[in-house]
Amino acid sequence: MSIAVATSLCTLIVCLSPLSAAQQSSSDKDHAPPPLEVDGVIGIPIDILSIQAEVVFDLETRTAMAKADVRFEMTADGMPLFDLRQKIAKLSCNGVELDPELVSSHKTGAGGARIRLLQKELAAGTQHLLHFEYPLLKPNSPRAQDIGWGDGTLDWDFFFSDLNWGRYMEMWFPANLIYDRFKFDMDLKINGATDDHQIVSNGDVTEVEKQKHWQLSFPATFAAFSHMLVVVPDHKVTRSASKVKVGDRTIHLDVCKLNTAKTSLQDIHKQTADYLKEFSKSTAMWPHGDRCTVFVWTGGRSMEYDGATTTSMGALGHELFHSWFGRGLKPVSQNDGWWDEAWTVWFADGGRKSPKDIPAKGSPVELSSPNPYNRTTNMLAYQMGSLFYSRLAKELGEKELMKLMAEFFNKYYATGASTEDMAQFLYAKTQNDQVLQLFHRYIYGKEGSVMDKKNR
What we know:
Elements: E1 36-38, E2 41-58, E3 63-74, E4 79-82, E5 90-93, E6 96-98, E7 105-107, E8 114-117, E9 127-135, E10 148-149, E11 154-157, E12 183-191, E13 197-201, E14 204-209, E15 213-218, E16 229-233, E17 237-246, E18 249-258, H1 265-282, E19 291-296, E20 303-305, E21 308-311, H2 316-321, H3 337-348, H4 380-396, H5 398-412, H6 419-430, H7 433-442
Parallel strand pairs: 2-4, 2-12, 18-19, 19-21
Antiparallel strand pairs: 1-2, 2-3, 3-9, 4-8, 5-6, 5-9, 7-8, 10-11, 11-16, 12-15, 13-16, 14-15, 17-18, 20-21
Helix pairs in contact: 3-4, 4-5, 4-7, 6-7
């Protein structure tokens, strides 16, 4: 998510091609957090295989009902963990009806750090189907946005955020933490509409019944923070498509903007095309096939998705670069979310400091939390994380750091990466002890030497 304005770009040519989605390994379970003891019972991270959902909006009564089927596999013996920020009305497991209270929410940390646990013992390696039914309401998540009910119209945006607890897919549908990737299909109906609506998404959209019924399909490479969906009345927006040639690939641009946004579709297309060309040269070829979806708001609200963004114009470059670092190469836990913001600010937003402007040794900064169930990105990631990369650049050289980070992208794009993966990769490439020391002090927030086992 952007809090900065994109200003300058890098012109280092690396020209790496990321692995295709088909080459991704099934490493999700390897990145799962350890079992969690909550309120005296042991919760087990699960591997979600697929989610099938249905939502029906009734514009006359201003109500919405949702259903969701979640197929999952247990990674160990115990009780499955997942999240959903809606009040469950009906629940069943493998066709057997259960009391919704059996999936009550449990506190896992400070603030809104909570997770649901199904109080049912299940065996490792077994697969199961959970069925949910519930009225779709404003999510029980910090700063979540309610459904916008108009006079025969609907405004609905997934509106994900990495800066607040429970602000990914779990706002609207049962979902997992971000280590997990899964297939997601949704059936969307709007009853009682008096206006046409635009469906803007990075999924495949099929119109089943004109302006009333759509089917959306998202790939199995998506995690809980990947899915973009905006439903907006047609009279509020303008939309157009174009093509841009990037290397030997043709990318189809789908651009939609609010009519109140003080920019033109032509300008959005041009800036988007320029960014795609620049970042494909400096980091790797566009990693999301032949599509890029952009929705431009008014104000400063912006968010990244896989191959897509909802953004202000000032943050367009920042959000598009996240389709490389953040939603191309994905952090495997929220504790690793700092690097996609920090590197984007440093690389795409002109956040680099010259060596003479880098402050002397500062206080330790913890950007990567030791809590494996942390659910937010530290706000310090933007400023202090960018400063961390300036410190690395001072040690290694800017061009060398950019080259190594492009190589890091290419190596881990298929599987996602942790903070430790990055530290060890950069150290292995440079054999420079100061690399590990900088991570030790300015990412893990520890005093002393990285070689001091008491502080590791």
